[in-house]
Design a protein that fits this description.
The protein is of the alpha/beta class and 354 residues long. The protein has one domain: 3-Layer(aba) Sandwich (Rossmann fold). The chain is built from twelve helices and eleven strands. The strands form four sheets. The protein has a four-stranded parallel beta sheet with strand order 3-6-10-11, sandwiched between helices. A three-stranded antiparallel beta sheet has the order 8-7-9. A two-stranded antiparallel sheet has the order 1-2. α5 crosses α6. The longest helix is centred in the last third of the chain and has 21 residues. 32% of the residues are buried. The N terminus is likely disordered.
């Protein structure tokens, strides 16, 4: 969005009752708004008398009929090919890492140490171990790695059997191992996460709004605790449908951590993973629950980018959702195809890299 934008501020509730309201970060004069209108080729959805199958057309109803939806982009800033990148977030971030690395771009989060870890399912990479699915788990991982005063809650690591332990702040793609090796993996995770401090480019992928909290350790975990724990100690974990304000606070904390401990010229690209929920623990239909969560995260990403000059939103979510279904999704309608990731990264590179 071009034109002026304001930091979110509170204004009096016009009803005189209830909490103060937040002022929109998007406030333009009429002149600025009309300049935006004149500048944009992709401003209108439909017009009578225009050819529906005109593949070169600028109207949304024409562009949405193409195999790949290509949004109009106006990047806030440019990144350099010699910048170091760090991707953190849900599984979609791993696809972005692979695409960047294939272009000979330095991706610190795709550490070779992770690739050497043996996944329980030999068809997946050990890198999946690093997935961070919610804003709490992203914030926590950065705190533990960057903030000297933040201490990892050792009590949140739980024993499964006489010989195996589980770190709920990781993605359980690896074989469960003894406590010593579990802690070694934890140390490796934090050592690699520290490398975000040398990265000028950070890609943050938001995945889930349904989260779980370890009541005993008083900390939110990365994903759904494994079933054996929920059965053996049903009072240890509680399920949360997180709010916009909770996730906003987490993103602001993440921004603060990167400002204080990160690269002095850090630039953040925030995206929303198109990969839907696998399960919901609410009473909603899974499709309704997924729409609610993605809508919350999508609005969150836009507003967060609006109030920070070094944060920009990249619409990978919209590209997948509005392209040809057969081209973007595997048969499970959950995993994004390699071709779709390639299309997204081509657009990203064309627009953001100098």
């Amino acid at each position: 969005m071009s034109g002026a934008f304001l930091n979110e501020t509170t204004v009096a509730n016009p009803s005189g009752n209830g909490p103060a309201l937040k002022k929109s970060p998007y406030v333009l004069t009429a002149v600025e708004a009309m300049k935006n209108y004149a500048k944009s080729r992709a401003r209108t959805w439909y017009k009578d008398g225009v050819e529906t199958d005109d593949t070169a057309g600028n109207y949304a109803f024409q562009r949405l009929r193409q195999t790949w939806f290509t949004p109009q982009l106006d990047p806030k800033f440019k990144l350099r090919r010699d910048d170091k990148f760090y991707a953190i977030g849900s599984c979609f971030a791993r696809g972005l890492e692979n695409s960047l690395a294939a272009r000979n771009i330095s991706v610190e989060s795709a550490a070779p140490e992770f690739a050497k870890l043996q996944a329980a399912n030999r068809e997946v990479s050990g890198l999946g171990f690093t997935n961070k699915y919610n804003t709490y788990s992203i914030m926590n991982e950065l705190r533990w790695a960057l903030d000297p005063s933040a201490e990892f809650p050792r009590e949140s690591i739980v024993q499964l059997t006489e010989t195996t332990w589980y770190d709920p702040h990781t993605n359980p793609t690896l074989e469960f191992v003894d406590l010593e090796e579990t802690l070694e993996r934890r140390a490796l995770m934090q050592a690699v996460t520290k490398r975000i401090a040398i990265c000028r480019a950070v890609i943050l992928t938001l995945g889930l709004a349904e989260v779980w909290r370890d009541v005993k350790a008083d900390v939110f975990v990365n994903g759904t605790p494994i079933q054996s724990l929920l059965k053996a100690d049903p009072d240890r974990y509680e399920f949360h449908l997180t709010s916009f304000s909770e996730n906003w606070a987490n993103l602001e904390a993440i921004h603060g951590l990167l400002f204080q401990y990160g690269h002095p010229d850090v630039h953040i690209i925030v995206t929303v993973s198109p990969v839907p929920l696998m399960n919901t623990f609410s009473t909603m239909d899974i499709v309704v629950a997924n729409t609610w969560a993605k809508s919350l995260l999508r609005a969150l990403a836009q507003e967060w980018a609006a109030v920070h000059s070094n944060v920009d939103y990249f619409p990978s979510y919209e590209i997948v959702q509005n392209s040809d279904l057969a081209k973007t999704w595997e048969c499970d309608l959950r995993h994004v195809t390699g071709a779709a990731v390639q299309q997204i990264m081509d657009l990203f590179v064309q627009n953001y890299l100098e």
